[in-house]
Specification:
The chain is of the alpha/beta class. It has a single domain, classed as Vaccinia Virus protein VP39 (Rossmann fold). The chain has a six-stranded mixed β-sheet with strand order 2-1-3-4-6-5, sandwiched between helices. It starts with a helix and ends with a strand.
């Protein structure tokens, strides 16, 4: 087996466990990643919201998969939410988020870490208010884009905006819960 295939196999095993590999943990927690979230990913989401005339200022927002909390910090600064809820893969925090209804959910590259990613998207729809916004950025790691988009539609999300990042490897979406 080539080195590439060994690395890919190990990476996929970690994803199936819902954990970050050591390399990905480092990649998610450094200055370059924070710069990308602030200056690329969040800017795409802001452009989507503006184009669709969706104002999240003073709204309830959920940051699903908040990791170190940096995304929660920048969402708070930009949107000044009335309430922001942040959680990661810890079951105790997921239970807290399940009790609340929010106007928007931000997800920065988390769904591909969840073994049951389709169930995760469905659960997110449960905590969103009717016509609530889902802003999601994901790499194409465990699903094909048409599979991902079909799942969003089958749950009841309407995809209003989408954009490719880094070629076709990452995509950002703005969806509304119908």
């Amino acid at each position: 087996m080539s080195d590439y295939n060994k690395i890919k196999k190990r990476f996929n095993q970690e994803i199936l466990k819902g954990r970050l590999s050591k390399i990905e943990f480092w990649a998610m927690n450094n200055a370059v990643r924070r710069w990308l979230q602030r200056n690329v990913e969040l800017k795409v989401f802001q452009r989507f919201l503006k184009k669709q005339n969706i104002d999240l200022n003073n709204k309830a927002i959920l940051d699903a998969g908040c990791g170190s909390g940096y995304s929660t910090e920048i969402i708070s600064k930009i949107f000044n939410p009335s309430k922001i809820i942040a959680f990661d893969l810890m079951p105790e925090q997921i239970k807290l988020a399940q009790k609340r209804r929010t106007d928007a959910v931000f997800i920065f590259g988390v769904i591909h870490h969840v073994c049951s990613w389709k169930k995760a998207l469905k659960e997110i729809s449960r905590v969103l208010k009717n016509r609530g916004a889902l802003l999601i950025e994901e790499p194409r790691v465990i699903f094909k884009w048409n599979e991902f988009e079909n799942e969003l539609n089958s749950i009841g999300y309407e995809i209003l905006e989408k954009a490719k990042l880094m070629g076709n490897y990452f995509k950002s979406y703005l969806c509304i819960l119908k």
